[in-house]
C-alpha cells in the first residue's frame, strides 16, 4: 500500500520514490518478493516517525540539513532497488544481501539517531514549558503519578454471545437518545464488565465517541487516584489536586477540552453500593460527555438503569458449548447436541424462578432440582447438567470438564445434583462454585491451596506472578525459580479460576523470567477464596485475611483474650482512611501508625495499602513474627515513603522481601542485619541509591546471604549502589525498565558467584564495564532493549561459562569483539534480524551455538 507523501519536499519525495520502487520491483520479480515485502513493511512502520520528526523540526525551526543523512539513505536505496530490477540471476544473492543491509540500516537509524533527535526536540519543548511553570518528567507526568496506568479501555472480550441486544440498546440510549448517564445493573458474574468492554470496542461506538476513558472503581475507591488515572496522558500534564472537589472540577474542564475534538464516553466499572457521593462528582453538565457505570446496585439519583436480562436458550447453549466442549483437537467425550439442549433448556427454566437476573451463561454448573439421572443401556451416554445460568459459575465448571472423560463428567454430575435448586443470592453462587474447588481436590490438593492464597490481594488489582512465586516457594517448597508456580497458574487459568496475562508473550518461554506475568481474578472468585478460608475457626485457619476499613478492627481482634491463630499466611489490607487510634479517638497523621495488635506468627505476611498519608509505617508487631519467611508490601495508591524497617532486624528466618511502589530512603539507615535474607525485589520503588548509600553498616554485613536482587521500573535509579558489588554470594542480578540507569560499576567483577545478569529495557545504558569478563560463573546474560548500548566489552571471552545470551532490540551494536569466538560453551543466542547479522560470522567458531530469531519491534516506545 502506497503511503501518502510525508512532510518536507525533499524528504517526502525521497521516501515516496523508494517505496514506489520497492512495490513495483516486488510485483515484477518474484525472486526478491519476500525481502522487498519486509522492506516495505519497515518503510510503512517508520513513516509516522518521519512525520513526527518533520513536525518537531518545523516547530523548533531546525535546519533541514539534519535530514540529509536520512534523505541520502533513501535515495541510495531507490538506486539499489532499480539496479535489482536489471540484475542477472547470478547477482541476485549479492543484491538480496544489500537489500537486507538497507533494511537494517533504516531500522538502526530510526531506533538510534532519529530517536535521539526526537527525544532532544521533545526535551527542548519540555524545557520551554518548564520555564513557564510546568514541572514534567521525561514522560510528561509527575513522578508520583508515573505508574497509575492507562485510562484506555481494556481489550475486547475474547468471546461474546447473547449480548447483541443489550449492546444495541445501550448504543441507542447513549448515541441516539443522548442519555447522559446509564448504570448497567446485574449481580456479580453476570457479564457487566464484558458488556462494557464490548461496547468500548464496538465500531459504531468508537466512531461516535472520539474519546473513550475507562476506570475500575472497586469497593473502596480513591476519587483522586481515579481522576488522576483519567488525566494520565503522555501529552498532557497531570495537575496536583488540592482535594476531591478540585479533582472533580479539573476533570470536568478536561472533558470540555476533549469535547472540542469529539464526544467523550467515560466508563466507570465495578461501582459498589455506598458510592453515591463518588458518582455525584461525575454528574457533569456537558452535552457531549456520557458516563456509563457497571454495578450490582441501582443509583437512581445518578442516572437511568439498564438491567441485564437472562440468555435465551440458543445463546445459553452456545456459551455452554464454548466453555465445556472442545472446539478443536481430540477429547474423551463430547455430549450430543440434544443433550446440550436438554441441559441448557432445563437451566433456563430454573433461572426464570430466580430473584436475580443474569446475562452470561459461560460456566457449566450442575445445580438444579434434585433428580435421578438415568443412563439408557445401548444409547449414547448422557451427561445432564443443571446450570444455574450465572456466567461465572457456568464457565468455571464447564472449563473443569473440558476434554475430561465420561467418568469425570458422571462423578461431577452426582455431586452437583445434590445442590440447591434456585439461585437467590450470591452466597448460593459461592456454593455453586464450590464444586469446582472440589474438582481441584480430586486432581491436585496443592492447586486448591494456591487458589485460596489469591484472596490475599485486593479486589480488582493485578497480582504479580513474582509475588506468588515468592509465597509458594516458601509455603509449599516449590522451586525457587517459579516454574511450578507458573504451571499452577496456567492450570487455574485453564479452569477459569483466574486470568493469566504475560505482557511479553515469549518472556517466560525464553528464560523463565516472570516479571511481566500478571494475574487477575473475578471479584466473586476472590470472595469464594476468602469465604472458604473463613469457614474454619480462627484457631484452625491456614490463612488469615484482615480487611481494615478506617480504623475499625475485626471483632475477634479486639477481644480481651484473642483467639490464637496458627495461620501460615496473614494478609492485612488497609484503605485510604486507615489512621492511628487512641481509644475511641481517630487521630489524623502524616503517616500510618498501628495500634497495639496481637498477630499470629505466620510464614508469609502481605501488607496491602492505598493511603493518602505521606508515610506508611511498618507495624511493630512484625518483630514478634519469628517464623516469618516472606514479606510482601504493596502500595496501590500514590507513592509514599515506607518507614520503620528496623522491625525486620530480629527476623532470623526472613528469606524474601518484595516492596512495590514505595519510597525507601531509610531502608538501610539502621544497623539491622538480615542474615538469612536470600532475595529482595524492588518494583516501582524510589530513592534506592539513597537507601543503600546511607547505610550505617556495610551492605555485605547487612545482607551476608543475599542471592538474588530484582529491580524493576525504578525510574530514579541512576547507578547501581557500589555496595551491591560486595555481595559475594549473589547468584542473580536482574534490572529492568530503569530508564535512567547509566551502566554497571567496574566493581561488578567482585560478584564471583553471579550466574544470571539481566539488563532488560534499560534504555540509558550505553556501555558495559570490561570487568564483566571476570564473571567466570555467569551462565545467562540478557541485554534486551538496551537501545543505546554501542559496544560489547573486549574481555567478554572471560565469560567462559556463558550458555545463554539474549540481545534483542540493541540497534546501537554495530559489531561484536573478535573475542566472542572464544565463548566455546555458548549454546543459545536469542536475537533479532539486526543482531543475527553480528553473530553469523562467528558461528563456525562456535559449534554448539544456536541462533534463535525473535522479531524486533520497530516502535521503540514499546521497549
From TrEMBL:
Q: Which residues form the RPW8 domain?
A: 1-148
Show the InterPro entries listed in the entry. Apaf_helical, LRR_dom_sf, LRR_R13L4/SHOC2-like, NB-ARC, P-loop_NTPase, Powdery_mildew-R_dom, WH-like_DNA-bd_sf
Keywords attached to this entry: Plant defense, Repeat
Q: State whether keyword Repeat applies.
A: yes
The family database entries (Pfam families) matched by this protein are listed as: LRR_14, NB-ARC, RPW8
Enumerate the GO terms in the molecular function aspect.
Answer: ADP binding
What's the superkingdom here? Eukaryota
Gene Ontology BP term (one): defense response
Task: Identify its protein family.
Answer: Belongs to the disease resistance NB-LRR family.
Name this polypeptide is given = RPW8 domain-containing protein
